[in-house]
Structures are given as structure tokens and as C-alpha cells.
Amino acid sequence: GESVGLHLPTLSVQEGDNSIINCAYSNSASDYFIWYKQESGKGPQFIIDIRSNMDKRQGQRVTVLLNKTVKHLSLQIAATQPGDSAVYFCAVHLTQKLVFGQGTRLTINP
Amino acid sequence: NAGVTQTPKFQVLKTGQSMTLQCAQDMNHEYMSWYRQDPGMGLRLIHYSVGAGITDQGEVPNGYNVSRSTTEDFPLRLLSAAPSQTSVYFCASSSSLGYTFGSGTRLTVV
Predict the structure, then answer these.
(1) What is the DSSP string of B4-63?
(2) Helix/strand/coil for A16
(3) What is the pLDDT of residues B20-75, one digit of tens each?
(4) CA-based end-to-end distance of chain A
(5) Contact criterion met (CB below 8 Å) for B105 and B10
(6) Which of A37, A45, A60, B65 has minimal Cβ neighbours within 10 Å of its Cβ?
(7) Which of A9, A46, A100 sits opposite B43 (nearest CB)?
(8) At A27, phi and psi to the nearest 5?
(9) Contact (Cβ atoms closer than 8 angstroms) between residue B46 and residue B64
(10) Phi, psi at residue A82, to the nearest 5°?
């Protein structure tokens, strides 16, 4: 199976700084990795994904890094804004199942 | 609008009652799944389906039944609700392009 762990349950950053949220997974056969943002009372919202044949993928203000050697995944958010406040989940796909980490709550300080 | 539709949005049940949470998607996705999310936790997989007529158990299947008679619909049944099933339930459908989540059903069992 697969298990997904998270390094920090909460992260507080200053507005305008960069945020880095980390995630670790257990099964080296996992082939697809997704970061979700969840705001209060809403469902998970897709941010960015990466497949196991890649090490890095960039979107608008977000970058996902995948280190398969140590089974580690990170989400970088550039120039963090108040609207980035939410809980962020990594999810790891293995054999038709998506396994979620417990989430990191990102708080933005003005 | 294309996507995943969940009904109802809120439900209160008494212990022992039964109910069905509805999930429908109009994206012609073969894969659909149900998750539950408890406070401060990530999503945990209950059941999933890779196509009409095919279902399988996820991480926390006990107390829940599913069926998949059509591609569009994937209902989740609670046969005898228990307080431990108080949670927020999310349905998702997916293709090779990624996962789409519904907005959730908040269920309280008293």
C-alpha cells in the first residue's frame, strides 16, 4: 500500500514571502502526485500535479518538486498572498487509489 | 457546468437510520471514488469504481455500500448510521488528466 506523511501541520509566513510545504510518501511504485488546496467548507481544489517521470513542474506562482530517491514531494508558492491561506494536501496515486496526507494549514501574516 | 455533483449538501441522521449520498458526474469518467474527511485529517478512501458494474474497497469501507449501474452515478449507502460516520463526504471522478471533486456532503449522526 501507500502511506503519506506531512512534515508540518501548520505553516505561518509573511505576505510576499515564499512558502514551502513538504510531503513524504512510502511506496516507490507511486506514479502520480497531486497538490490540493482546501478552503473552509469546500472540496479539494487542484493546484498542480507531477508524474513520476518528472522532477519538477511549474505553474503560475507554484512549483512542485519530486525527489524519488528519498520519496519526498514539495510545493513551493512564490510571493504568498492572503488568498493563499488554506489547508494544503498532497495526494499520491498508486494502483487506482489516491492516498492523501493530513494537510498543512498555511497562514499568511500581513 | 461540467463536474461532480453531490447531494444533499447537509444531512442529520439518527443512529440506525439509513440513507444514500448521491454523486453524479457528466465528464464520462470511468473512475469514481468516495472519500471521508474527519476534522484535521486528510481524505480517506471508502470505495472506488473503475467502471460500471465494478467496485472495490478502499481504506475505510466498513459500514458503507456502493454500486455502479451507470457511468454517471456512484451512490454511497449507509445501511445503519453510527455516530462514528459523522464526517464530510467527498465524491471524485477521474481520468488520465486528473481528479475532480464534488463540493461535499456534511453528515451528522446523532
Answers:
(1) EEEE-SEEEE-TT--EEEEEEESS--SEEEEEEE-TT--EEEEEEEEETTEEEE-SS-TT
(2) coil
(3) 999 999 999 999 999 999 988 889 999 999 999 999 999 999 999 999 999 999 99
(4) 41
(5) yes
(6) A60
(7) A100
(8) -105, 120
(9) yes
(10) -55, -35
Q: Which residues does B contribute to its contact with A (CB < 8 Å)?
A: 31, 33, 35, 40-45, 48, 50, 56, 58-59, 90, 92, 94, 98-104
pLDDT tens string, chain A, 110 residues long: the values are 788 876 688 999 999 999 999 999 999 899 999 999 999 888 899 999 999 999 999 999 999 999 999 999 999 999 999 999 999 999 999 888 899 998 999 999 98
Residue B104 DSSP symbol: -
Residues B99, A101: C-beta atoms closer than 8 Å: no
Residues listed for chain A:
110
DSSP character at residue A67: E
Q: B74-96: string of b/e by CB count within 10 Å (b at 16+)?
A: bbbebeebeeebbbbbbbbbbee
Q: From CA B11, how far away is CA A80, in angstroms rounded?
A: 36
